Amino acid sequence: MQSKPQLLAWLTCDGVHIDPSSGKYTILGVFSNIKALEFPVNHPLMVWFMTLTDVSAGEHVMRISMGLTPTSMQALIERPFESQSPLHRINLINEIRNLSFPDPGDYCLLIEIDDEPLLATNLGVSS
Question: Residue 32 in contact with residue 107, Cβ under 8 Å?
């Protein structure tokens, strides 16, 4: 039986640095909401960092969608990745620039692997 991918970590942050000598990840500026003075607002740069495990060996597709309601979701990131083994931990760094928020609210985020929902969460945007 094939296992379902498991999400070990999900962070919204300003950046991720990978140390070239040790391969260790340093997560910079973790945040869970955005404050803006006026709308619409564009957030210049954010990173969605995730760690996956139990991903069957082979090629896969990760997609992140966002919307103010679950019915208004739009795909923001869709990217292929490869798993060597379900035992491996896979770190995916998803950089997104100039993300537009037309109105304040709790924006729904949906993370899918191979069209299967893995995580539904939200990002609060307020004035």
Answer: no
CA 76 from centre of chain: 10
Separation of CA 116 from chain center:
15
Structure tokens at 105: 């609210």
- At 103, is the secondary structure helix, strand, or coil? coil
pLDDT per position as a tens digit, 57-73: 999 999 999 999 888 89
Q: How far apart are CA 105 and CA 7, in angstroms?
A: 25
Other beta carbons within 10 angstroms of residue 52's beta carbon come to 23
Q: Which residue segments constitute the domains of the chain, with CATH numbers given?
A: 6-126 (2.60.40.10)
Alpha carbon distance, N-terminus to C-terminus of the chain: 48
Residue 1: pLDDT band by 50, 70, 90 thresholds? Answer: low
pTM over the 0.90 mark: yes
